[in-house]
């Protein structure tokens, strides 16, 4: 799933490619991709892109309506398997709806544009067309952005006050902090040398500082790695920069121990026992049930 660094890189890429350009056509190609109906997608035809914003994992394509119409926001959440693919040109014939991974196509006056695609059978990619991004429920509920300049150590500590969850779950909660998902929560906890199962309420003041510094440095380094990378190569760039996530069975790049995994019904986490849990493997309940 794209997280803060990849979506920020896409925002910068689209800022270069879209701002100042006129949209001539928006084609929804799956029945469930569009989550709003007023204003209609046709309102974007003739509109000029004025800015590209990001809200957590959401991309926000801002456009001035044709003939001085109201500002429009095309808000995109790529979900787990969605992606944006830039095209310098398109075939003259529009694609047939419902065929393949195509979910939505945006075409500019110059003939270029982008496709939104989604692999797999579980379709969660979501597009909203609104006049205010706060009208999108997922955006309205977002916590603070971890890359924002006002997100300092004290702000982070205030968010954690009263939390009773394990650290992994807290970091992934979009209502608490916007934009961190499964992969970068693993990376942050590895950098902080903390167990993903440690309860937030057990963190000392020094550990809160350590976790904050790991969060900021991990995300900033990932953003820098992604900056300037073409949209089509961002997924590979993300994977190449991960130290523990998705690397079960490999050697930890810090200590050399074997990276372990804990599996859940629809996801898994990875960690280093030596770096994070005092050398003790965490219980993998799903694996334990299979072995019984």
Summarize the helix and strand pattern as letters. Answer: HEEEEEEEEHHHHHHEEHH
Give a quick account of the main beta sheet: strands, pairing sense, barrel closure.
4 strands, antiparallel
Overall helicity: 25-40%
Give the spatial strand order of the biggest sheet: 1-6-7-5
C-alpha Rg, in Å? 21 Å
Structural class: alpha+beta
Strand percentage: 15-25%
The end-to-end distance, rounded to whole angstroms, is: 32 Å
Tally of alpha and pi helices: 9
**Regions with little confidence, pLDDT below 50 for 5+ residues:** 287-292
Whole-number mean pLDDT = 92
Structure summary, number of beta strands: 10
Shape: elongated
Can you walk through the features of this model?
The chain has helices at 4-18, 137-140, 153-160, 167-172, 182-192, 205-226, 234-241, 273-276, 285-291; strands at 23-28, 48-55, 58-65, 69-77, 82-87, 102-108, 113-118, 126-130, 260-263, 268-271. The protein has nine helices and ten strands. It is α+β, with helices and mostly antiparallel strands and 292 residues long. The strands form three sheets. Strands 1-6-7-5 form a four-stranded antiparallel sheet, with no helix packed on it. It has a four-stranded antiparallel sheet with strand order 2-3-4-8, with helices on one face. The longest helix has 22 residues, at 205-226.
């Amino acid at each position: 799933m794209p997280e803060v660094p990849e979506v920020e890189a896409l925002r910068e890429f689209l800022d270069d490619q879209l701002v100042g350009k006129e949209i001539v056509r928006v084609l929804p190609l799956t029945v469930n991709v569009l989550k709003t109906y007023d204003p209609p997608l046709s309102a974007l035809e003739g509109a000029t892109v004025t800015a590209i914003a990001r809200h957590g994992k959401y991309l926000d394509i801002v456009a001035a309506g044709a003939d001085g119409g109201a500002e429009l926001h095309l808000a995109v959440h790529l979900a787990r398997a969605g992606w944006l693919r830039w095209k310098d040109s398109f075939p003259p014939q529009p694609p047939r709806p419902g065929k393949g991974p195509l979910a939505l196509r945006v075409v500019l006056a110059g003939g270029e544009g982008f496709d939104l695609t989604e692999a797999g059978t579980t379709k969660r990619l979501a597009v909203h067309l609104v006049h205010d991004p706060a009208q999108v429920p997922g955006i309205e509920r977002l916590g603070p952005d971890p890359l924002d300049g006002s997100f300092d150590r004290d702000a982070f500590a205030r968010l954690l006050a009263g939390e009773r969850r394990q650290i992994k779950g807290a970091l992934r909660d979009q209502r608490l902090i916007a934009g961190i998902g499964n992969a970068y929560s693993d990376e942050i906890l590895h950098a902080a040398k903390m167990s993903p199962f440690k309860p937030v309420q057990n963190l000392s003041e020094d550990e809160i500082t350590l976790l904050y510094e790991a969060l900021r440095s991990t995300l900033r380094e990932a953003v820098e790695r992604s900056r300037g990378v073409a949209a089509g190569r961002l997924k590979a760039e993300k994977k190449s920069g991960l130290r523990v996530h998705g690397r079960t069975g490999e050697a930890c790049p810090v200590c050399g121990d074997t990276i372990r995994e804990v599996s859940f019904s629809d996801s898994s986490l990875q960690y280093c026992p030596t770096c994070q849990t005092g050398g003790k493997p965490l219980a993998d309940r799903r694996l334990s049930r299979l072995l019984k």
